[in-house]
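Both lines are given unchanged directly below:

***
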Amino acid sequence: MIDMRVNRRQFAAALCGATGALAGCQSVDRQVQAALGPRIHHRDAPVDTVATWPTQHGRSDRTGSISRDLELDLDSSARRIAPSVERGKWGVVVSGDRIIHPGTAARSDSSGESRRPVYGLVGTSLDGESWAIEDTHGPSLVVGETVICSLGDGVAAFDASDGTVCWRYSDGGYPTLAGGLVCTTSGHTLFGLDPRDGRRHWKTENFSDGARFEYTVSKLAGDDKLLCGVRTVEYDADSLVAFDPTTGAVRWRGDTGPCRHPPVVGDERVYTLSSEWTLTAFNRRGEQLWTRDVGWESLPAVDDGQLWSAGPDGEILVRDGETGRKQWQTTVGNVAPSRPLLTPSYAYVLVGELEEETRLLMIDRVSKSVRRSQSVPVLPKRVDSQLFPPLAASAAGAVIGESTGLVETDEGGVYVVS
């Protein structure tokens, strides 16, 4: 019996040694593919350690909420720990003392001479030490001390401490953790992979309504019991599809338009924000509960029955999760704030005025009063009405991944407010 823990190169070498009568490498490669499939396994990924802080989206459910408050002093300051070269729409994530972000890292050869910088996924420690892996792109998923993200045309798992590859799967993108598995899509196919070693547990194909045609779900969210995906383009079918994350079987479909953002999977409800700015709520059985036209609001952060959103003209809004009705609204600037980051006591948002300094607000979730307004003068000033980057939480404080364009500047980068 073949030990499936060996990687493809090791197995190929063993197979070639044992099959001298085989004619040519193509025959060997076919046998390797048949035995190992699209997975390459180097070593098990360190997934057992519980991360001190979740990712900026508040786990794979995309709720934007975490279970503990940030520890920020009144005299906090901000410092830049890494450059960034692209607008990270998927933001930064945190694994232990590593900040994982899109960007660039310098490198040198064995003689110490500088070589071409690496562009892709970068892991930076709070003291500025970093590793980088080329051809990687977001969003990133953190499981224990493992970072899982898209690599080339597939997905791969890396040790967050040093960036070494643990395993790679040649298909997929946009990884999400649901039911204890890494769920990812490739075309009209959905996979469930073991986060430890990349083994495929299940595969689902052509999950369109009535099998009239094949379509994809390209943005995912999930928890232990439910996996949801949405389409980004228009078809004559429901855009939201809910799956059993342990088998890949379709549970139900939801009538909503194409979506730019992933769904939000809450404890009681699933929310979608369509490309036409319609916010829709479903219960976890797939029954539509309500729908609201919300204008240019951000994807809501969800916790304890509340939906916190950022508006296009500097508003912060709170809606009731059960009805979708607006409960509270205030204006904190003249450009769109960041999507709120929710903790048990506070909502944290980045706000600012055009050409003015950025501020980090800490809003009391009960009284709705601003408990703190921290200036972050090192951040680039707003020159347009684009959303501020999403916040991440770390043991050192709030983490911000900011960019001023597609080239590295002295302003764009990764900042820690502590």
User: Anything to note?
Assistant: The mean pLDDT is 78. The chain is about 5% helix and 40% strand.
